[in-house]
Amino acid sequence: MRLTRLSWIVFAMSIAMQAHAGHEVGDYRGLPDDLAAAATAYDLAQFHSDRGELERLLADDYTLAGSNGKNQTKAEFIDDSTAPGSKTTYVAITQQVRKVWPDGAVLGGMFDARGMDRGKAYTLKGRFVDVWAKRDGRWQVIFTQAHRVP
């Protein structure tokens, strides 16, 4: 499993609950309505490999810091997230973290995931943190830290 797939999984399901015919999306109750809507849209965009929505919801200066010590840009992340033969089929989030201030937020937690990465089955456990910023009236992810755990 490549680190880039790990980061895609992490983004796809920031804080999970059962919904949408077996798909999982975040449980964003208690967050500001506009942030909850953006986070839900982001979960679904990743789950469905929706390039257009990912373009909209990731800031142009987005950075992914992964377990391998390398960073990815927005374009690199989206290319990996929408690669043929890649599909997340299950994600569960525990130990969630939610910190919000007027123009920023941190959403994160532990995850357990499985699916296909370029046609190869995977299972993965890890921890992630997504940093959101409200710029020009809209929420976007500006940074993600993701790493595997035993």
UniProtKB/TrEMBL annotation:
Record domain DUF4440: where: 36-141
Leader sequence segment: 1-21
Keywords: Signal
Matches recorded under Gene3D superfamilies: 3.10.450.50
Pfam families: DUF4440
InterPro entries membership: DUF4440, NTF2-like_dom_sf
Protein name (Swiss-Prot/TrEMBL): Nuclear transport factor 2 family protein
Species this protein is from: Dyella telluris
